[in-house]
Amino acid sequence: MIDQTLAVVGGTGQLGAALAWRLARAGHNVVIGSRNAASAQARAAELGHGLTGMANRDAAAAADVVFVTVPFAAQADTLREIAPVLAGKLVVDTTVPLVPPKVMRVQLPPEGSAAERARGVLGEGIRLVSGFHNVAAHKLAQDVALDCDILVFGDSKDDRAAIVELAGRIGLRGVHGGALANSAAAEAMTSLLIFINKFYAVDGAGIRVTGNLLA
User: Which domains does the chain have, with CATH numbers?
Assistant: First the structure.
């Protein structure tokens, strides 16, 4: 994957910018996407490491792997915008169905998860995995070790494996989470982690899977 181009759609937001920075710093060719190309270019210049910026659809068109890092409210419209250029690409949806103001309450959509909503918008022909739901964006944006696992979901083991490996390249531990339908568990966990952060005054709680994961 080191020779492939990665796009981070919604890359001017907190999670998107942090993920783009981590990926670029690890040696990947990364394009930041935004609704406004000028905003994407400005954010890319700020982050450095060879990042470039384009409008969302152009960034997706230029990439082999497309990360979608937009808020839940913008997920469906963003996916519809980039869908025509996604054939043959691996799409990584990071969307968490947070519904303000009650973000500490689990509120999964009628489809069962944001990942299933993404599948409904994109159709069955798109290679789709989900992940990066439970990592604190502000910590991901820092040059620090992160004690947090990344659960990766998808119906293709090979596609999951590609993102599990990529997580390792940027200082995280990727863990296979099974079928895309299982994404609901990690998406729901985000609201629990937000509650834990507030209740215990924790600076970005994450999750860690115990046991021997060498399989």
Answer: 5-200 (3.40.50.720)
To which residue do tokens 């060719």 refer?
29
Q: What is the pLDDT of residues 19-43, one digit of tens each?
A: 999 999 999 999 999 999 999 999 9
Strands (E), 10-155: 29-34, 52-55, 65-68, 90-93, 127-130, 149-154
Q: Tell me which DSSP letter residue 191 carries.
A: H
In this prediction the pTM is 0.93
User: In whole angstroms, how far apart are CA 206 and each of 18, 50, 79, 122, 130?
Assistant: 16, 29, 27, 29, 17
- DSSP-assigned letter for residue 131: -
**pLDDT-based confidence at residue 144 (cuts at 50, 70, 90):** confident
Element (H, E) at 9: strand 5-9
Identity (one letter) of the amino acid at 53? G
Reported confidence tier of residue 1, pLDDT bands at 50, 70, 90: low
Distances (CA, A) of 146 to 23, 121, 137: 15, 33, 11
CA distance 73 to 173: 28
Per-residue pLDDT, 215: 57
